[in-house]
Amino acid sequence: MSQMNHDASSEAGRLGLRADCAACFGLCCVALPFAKSADFAVDKDAGRPCANLREDFRCGIHAHLRERGFAGCTVFDCLGAGQKVSQVTFEGRDWRRAPGTARLMFDVFAVMRQLHELLWYVNEALSLPPARPVHGDLRTALDDIERLTLGSAEAVAEVDVAAVRRDVNELLMRASELVRAAAPGPRKNHRGADLIGARLRGADLRGANLRGAYLIAADLAGADLRVADLIGADLRDADLSGADLTGSVFLTQAQVNAARGDGATRLPGELTRPAHWREGAAPRRGGGRRGRVSGR
């Protein structure tokens, strides 16, 4: 495939990076644990099916998850790992009819979810023209990771994800630097910063490094986040009303779903506006006070 004409959307389809719950055995509803909180109405141990999971592996309250206290389910995205494990790795054998496969299937799902996340990021980086100097290495990484996802259940379960992530992360960081270099003015480094509840209303964060930043409940209304690196940033309950995230890199649908926004929030073209976001006009941009910064 030409590096110059990499179509991220088409490639995501080929790689199966869009969740298809109808082809999955409800793996996120059984393999993963959750604790009673604002995101989940009850406690559930890993490996125990959620009480709302039906026999056909569909959610019995899917249309009312938020009202029933399961907002956490509405922001989760396996990026296609669920159907890959269900239909490819285990060839359509589900954990109910073949209970002997359950533990291995759940272990594989945990690894596959991380591999698909890396595929998603690498695929996006390949679509960014400024990152062209590393496209060759990124293409090799994409092929290598895809090969890992197609291994046997035992092989996938034994993948050293930390090592794979470490190597890929170096490429993603180089891609990010190349993309963000086009942003005007000094580029803020808030990598890993504790910005929980920070007041960043109207802040100029163009080209900022927000990798792994804690932006939980931060006020980013009207903020300019164009060309910012948001990989791994925790945007739970962050206010993105009227914020501009066009051109931001490594922002996922799950991050957007976890935040709050409105009809004036500008998103990258491949992401969709969550149904729970309110409509409204963009607030005025101003010099909002910044929260505590401890970025590396």
Secondary structure blueprint with pairings:
Layout: H1 8-15, H2 27-30, H3 71-75, H4 81-89, H5 102-126, H6 135-149, H7 153-157, H8 161-180, H9 253-258
Structure description:
The protein is an all-alpha fold. It contains nine helices and no strands. Helix 1 (8-15) packs antiparallel against helix 5 (102-126) and helix 6 packs antiparallel against helix 8. The longest helix is centred in the middle third of the chain and has 25 residues, at 102-126.
Structural class: mainly alpha
Q: Write the H/E string, N to C.
A: HHHHHHHHH
- How many E strands? 0
Report how far apart the termini are.
36 Å
What best-fitting shape do the alpha-carbon axes yield? Answer: globular
Largest sheet: none
> Hey, roughly how much beta strand do the residues contain?
under 5%
Range of helix content: 25-40%
